[in-house]
Amino acid sequence: MEELENIQNHIYTIRGYRVMLDFDLAKIYEVETAHLKRQVRRNIERFEGEDFMFELTSDELSRCQIGTLKKGRGSNIKYMPFAFTEIGVAMLSGVLKSKVAVEANRRIMRAFVAYRHLAELPLAATYLDLRKQIEDIRNEMDEILADQNDINESTRAQLDAISIALAELQAKPNDKPRRPIGFIQPKEDDEDS
Questions:
Q1: Phi/psi zone of residue 145: left (φ > 0), alpha (ψ -120 to 50 degrees), beta?
Q2: Spatial strand order in the sheet of 12-14
Q3: Cβ neighbour number for residue 111 with a 10 Å cutoff
Q4: How many CB atoms lie within 10 A of CB 64?
Q5: pTM passes above 0.70
Q6: C-beta contacts of 36-44 below 8 A and 24+ residues apart
Q7: CATH label of the domain that carries residue 92
Q8: Whose CA, among 10, 51, 85, 171, lies 20 to 30 Å from 192?
């Protein structure tokens, strides 16, 4: 399991592909990077297309934090590394024919598959979780709208009752004389007239 995690730590996402770089593969295959590149160049027709292998640019290399430049002669990367996709790594097994290469290729393929499963599982779980949350929100909104309709009908009935009561109050004549508003009291004479 530790070896699988070690291989997975060397899987990068570049240009939208999950790839392994030639120097990491050379360590796993227990060959020199130059030998691996030489074998790939001799069999380049097997690796045609970016979905098998591509050469990194210096920008991609610096963005990946893989090839950090060091001071001193001969310590920088002279040639840009090859990036092998999953099917490119599978194609390497036909180019490197040692027992170590075959066994290493099996381990790498298992690592890619495990990496794919790890990447897909959280998405599926997240999708199901989001779907459940959306369904819960829908149900909650339906309940709120139903309650609001009930309130509207109840409010409408209450407003109708108030309108009827006001109409009845306006229809009844008030026979009592009203007292004037203010500080000055009316004189008895004014009331009679």
A1: alpha
A2: 12-14, 17-21, 82-85, 53-55
A3: 23
A4: 16
A5: no
A6: 36/92, 36/96, 37/79, 37/82, 39/95, 39/96, 40/82, 40/92, 40/95, 42/95, 43/94, 43/95
A7: 3.10.260
A8: 171
Q: How many domains does the chain have?
A: 1
Q: Strand, helix or coil at 39?
A: helix
Q: Which domain holds residue 88?
A: 2-68+75-120
Please give the pLDDT value at position 20: 84
| pLDDT tens figures, 17-58 | 888 888 888 888 888 888 888 888 888 888 888 888 888 887
Q: How far apart are CA 30 and CA 15, in angstroms?
A: 27
Tokens representing residue 88 in the block: 């490119």
Report the distance separating Cα 93 and Cα 31, nearest Å. 13
